[in-house]
Amino acid sequence: MAIDDLELEVVREFDLIFQTIQSYLTRSPITPSYKDALWGALARFSPRQNELSKSNLTILLPLYSFQVCGGRGEFHREISAAWYLFYLAADLMDGVQDNDLRLSYSSSADSPAVWLNLASGFFFIADALLVQLLDRKANIESAQDILRAFQEKLLIMCDGQQQDLTQLETTLPDYLKMLEKKSGSFFSLACYAGARMATNEADSLIRIAEYGSHVGKMIQILDDLEDWHQLQKREFREIHLGKWRKTLPILYTLDVLPDDEKDLFRKTLAAVETQPEEVGQLVDYIDRCGAAVYT
């Protein structure tokens, strides 16, 4: 598929997803002001549709998984719309957790609570869209299986997020397990749910789910690598300091350094949070260990 064709496919898929969400909101009994707030957040945090990036290409995963597993005819956009809403809800909740600058435009003292409430709205709209599969002419057995998959995979993702939030220092093996639970499970879900509308053949579903898991883990590793490149360029103010300790280059460095140097590295890492001029020493440590190459 040519790049122009892929761009058109992304735009078309976003349009259909937004139509699906808007159709539900139109029928919903919630107040117009809350509908406007939900729609505004959706528009604000959705990636630009006419740019190819990992943020918007992933929206094609359910549809392409349906097609690659032999799906023909209508694809139920409730699956893609629900998965995308869960994606946005998780992104909003992470943003509140990390004091994301994207959420700081409002001077309202309760803005974190507002963002969390909007994220909750996205969760429940997504769930309602999935329930609609049972009312459509979709295969009931497939629809029930997809609902179970969403519940199970999202709970596993929450398990990984709990691990991320509660462990002060994470080892490299723990990080990789957490990556599997969070990003791996979530993108595995996108592929599995799309494919399940096309087939119930176990081997095909296992393989497509594994593919989605690898995609999810690679996306998170790319994010860590982008953080590392910002650190190298001394653009570290754009990286939330609390996340440094749980990025792949940092954890790899801690894993391979001798014990005596690990303590020095930890002190350097702590110093950078209050003394930004120490960032050069931190970069030297990580470079010397080959962490960027490993990532």
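[next item in queue]
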Amino acid sequence: MGSFLSTLKIEDNLVETIENIIWTAEKKLMIVSPFIKLDNHFKKLFDNLKNKHDLQITIVFGKN
């Protein structure tokens, strides 16, 4: 089941919520944002996930 994240619905820490979604993804992970800044923490997180061969990761970002 998909999860849609909106800052209006978040009661906890935003970073913690995003981490939770990333770590619990099983087959597909798609992150869509008009802007995204991956700091070293998230880069390490994605590096750890690249060995999880059954997980397809797609990140869509950018804004004209």
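[queue empty]
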